[in-house]
From TrEMBL:
Site residues, Transition state stabilizer: 48
Record's subcellular location: Secreted
Annotated Plant heme peroxidase family profile domain residues: 11-299
Name of the protein: Peroxidase
Catalytic activity: 2 a phenolic donor + H2O2 = 2 a phenolic radical donor + 2 H2O
Length: 300
């Protein structure tokens, strides 16, 4: 993985590249904005990449990539955009800016471009020389996880339930595959709280059998804009994934969801703060790791 999770407390700074690569941020910004202008859905993909921390070296005889781990295989997108931004940086300041930092800045630029908040990204991460595919199964939330499991997953990384709910708001963008929400839209069990009209609409694109890869927007209202409609949807029992709707299902996070559904500004502020905290989860710094020349491969 690019951002390691077993390193001592990070030493990051928002002006880390001020002297070594003063045009780093503008180079990444221009590259990412150009890409999203061509395909707006990429904003969601870049936010997800940063969250999953799964942009790793490709499969090799000696190293197994996190790209092909079950939570990411045929799902995570946007690697090529990070590659493109990194290639531009290598022409102006070779060997200086890490792929981990490119990804962190790209996520912020993606949010801002589609109407979401911006924040000052702390920089100075270095890239790992290893991949940890098994940790994608234990550390990344499963799309059918219950509320307490989600709280525990995020808590293990030092993130609070409020951070968790705010970060989940990134699902105001992007799409999900049919197999991830089929059980929710076809189940009539008492544990499957869902608006009937919403379920009926979703069934049109997601058959009861087959069509596992069929896509549906996470937010039917404004699928390409970063706003608080995700939380309004939850209040109306229109969350697409089970892990969405459990945030508003009579549990401890209901009040946070309600707050965000009423206050876009509070959601935006908390999302930005949570993204900063997430970026602080023990990255490699100093002399640890390396600065990859190509994001898809460890340096020789």
């Amino acid at each position: 993985m690019i951002v390691a999770i077993n390193q001592s407390e990070a030493q990051l700074s928002t002006n880390f590249y001020a002297s070594s690569c003063p045009n780093a941020l503008s180079t990444i910004r221009n590259s990412i904005r150009t890409a999203i202008s061509r395909e707006r859905r990429m904003a969601a993909s870049l936010l997800r990449l940063h969250f999953h921390d799964c942009f790793v070296h490709d499969q090799s005889p000696t190293i197994t990539s996190e790209k092909t781990a079950p939570p990411n295989d045929k799902s995570a997108r946007g690697y090529e955009l990070i590659d493109a931004a990194k290639a531009r940086l290598e022409t102006i300041c070779p060997g200086v800016v890490s792929c981990a930092d490119v990804l962190a800045v790209a996520a912020k630029e993606a949010s801002a471009y589609v109407g979401g908040p911006s924040w000052a990204v702390k920089l100075g991460r270095r890239d790992s020389t290893s991949a940890f595919p098994d940790e994608t199964l234990t550390d990344l939330p499963f799309f059918k996880a219950d509320l307490q499991t989600l709280i525990d997953n995020f808590g293990a990384k030092g993130l609070s339930p409020r951070d968790m709910v705010a970060l989940s708001g990134a699902h105001t963008l992007g799409q999900a595959q049919c197999f991830t929400f089929r059980d929710r839209i076809y189940s009539n069990g008492t544990d499957n709280i869902i608006d009937r009209g919403f379920a009926s609409t979703r069934r049109r694109r997601c058959p009861a059998v087959g069509g596992d890869d069929a896509l549906a927007a996470m937010d039917l209202v404004t699928p390409n804009s970063f706003d608080n409609n995700y939380f309004r949807n939850l209040v109306q029992r229109k969350g697409l994934l089970e892990t969405d709707q459990v945030l508003f299902s009579g549990g401890s996070t209901d009040s946070i969801v309600m707050e965000y559904s009423r206050s876009p500004s509070r959601f935006s502020a908390d999302f930005a703060a949570a993204m900063i905290r997430m970026g602080d989860i023990q990255p490699l710094t100093g002399s640890a790791g390396q600065i990859r020349r190509i994001c898809g491969a460890v340096n020789n």
